[in-house]
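Researcher: For the record, we're logging two predictions in this thread. I'll number them. Prediction 1 follows.
Model: Prediction 1, sequence and structure:
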Amino acid sequence: MAKGKGGKVAMSPEVKALNDEAQTAVGAAEFGKAGELLEKACVAGGNRVELGQQAAQCYCMAKQWKEAVKACTSILDAAPANVQALLTRCQAYEEMGFYKQALADASAVAAFDNAPLDALKYKTRIEETIAANKAKLASTTHGAPRGMAGGMGGGGGSGANANAAAAAAANAAAVAAAAPRSKVQIPSSLSVKVTLEGETRLANVSLNTLTYPELLDAVAAKFPGAHPECDEGS
């Protein structure tokens, strides 16, 4: 690729056309489109660090954090110590909620000699966010009913509840099995109504060894003047 004035690498016609189109998209606030065009310019042979960083910034302005991370990673593959790419990726990771990855990038920049203040601010802020999230999670876990805390964060809450319900059901079944079963009490005697010549009286008869002669005796006891007779053959 030919060098222009000042030793800078001159853009090829294709790269220049893509870059110009990207700048037009930026002017129209089409930041996502601009990022895509700048990445195409990189693939076409444009300066990976310079155009890639512009693409990452465009993606950040479009809040396309995942694409911003990819653009920065491409830069860091070629220039691992690129401070701007590390800080931009740190910002994108933080926006996505990937605090450990964001902290790693911020810490890497903070470890450089003459590290920019932004890196130290990012590092401190992300560390505070991680600590606050841990404290919140611990508070939520400790305050959860027993049997639910063990399922926090792993989708195990429903399993713990199911186990608790199964244990409760088994316990209830055991208690029911151990409890004495009620027995039906069968009376040993019975009061029966006896009606004779329009007069009704109650007679107590035994159900254990009741015979027909005994039944007649019970009736005779209630009606002394009566003499029931049995038909022959009864």
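Researcher: Logged. Prediction 2.
Model: Prediction 2, sequence and structure:
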Amino acid sequence: MDMEDATEKIKEDQANDEISFKPELWMNLDNESAPISVISYYQIHNVEEMKRRSTIIPLCSMFNLMQSCEKRLTGGGLEDVDGLLGCGVVLFQLTDLEIMTRELRPEEFEEACNLLYYTINWFRELITSFSTLKESDIHQKLILRLKNVLLLEAVLAKFLKHVPLFVPFEFQPQPSLMSSKGTSSRAHVLDAVSSQGVQIHRSSSGPLDSQVDVFKAPFKKENNNRFHTVHFDGLDDLRHQMRTLEVHTLSILRPLELVEEEEDKEEVKLEYEDINYLLRELDQKIEFKLTSSGKRKSLEEKIASNDTFLMQKTEVSQFMKEHYIQAILLARSSECRKH
């Protein structure tokens, strides 16, 4: 969304007293020079479901493909797309949570969770993509984006208490499976999700409507039947389904070497929470890699992350040598530099 248009639209909607769930620009690192906002309130709020799914779900994958092609063509550079790293996102006005609980409608709480979830995904994708670059300004923005992720996750964790059955768009069956034609369509949904290996506990008696209640969105709009096939127990479960922070993102831990003209700039430094977040991601990968094959299947089901297949193809000794030891050294050097 063009930043100038977004700014005007935000001002207009913030002045509208009829709107309780108001938009607001967040985390714009480039200020006025940012050309666009990426994740946008206007892609989700009061938008038809098929349209918002089609714009939000593929965003990270499309960028991943684009940056891969760019690196291949330029020998590893991302000069033509590096403006995206600093672009802000249009989310919502965050006031006192108790006030929001009283004022927001249930579906607006769900929209807020979706906005937070996909913004976290977007920032994680940016961190993975740009962490291969060594420029000091990129390094500083990556640290800020990592801090942004931690903040957004903290906000999402609070919101999930009010939307305990929240399920992101891609884990919901396609709306084309849903209709209001009654029992036959609902039975079709049950058969569809069963074929994907999802266990469904049917009761021996009772109408079909009661048997599929587990799949309904926590806040169902009238004449808009939606069904959920999965359930997430809080933020930790959701994090396993987010975009993978690949191992090379540990390069963020490397001490920054400022060039002479940048020495007067205030350096953004990693804090303990930031380092711990990256190391926790690595720890999950190590846990999966070093687990015996007999236990790995259950562990894979528990932490089904996006890079488990790639880790299966890496030798344990190679993984430890290339990643774990490097991570410890980088973490230590970062801590020592702070002191």
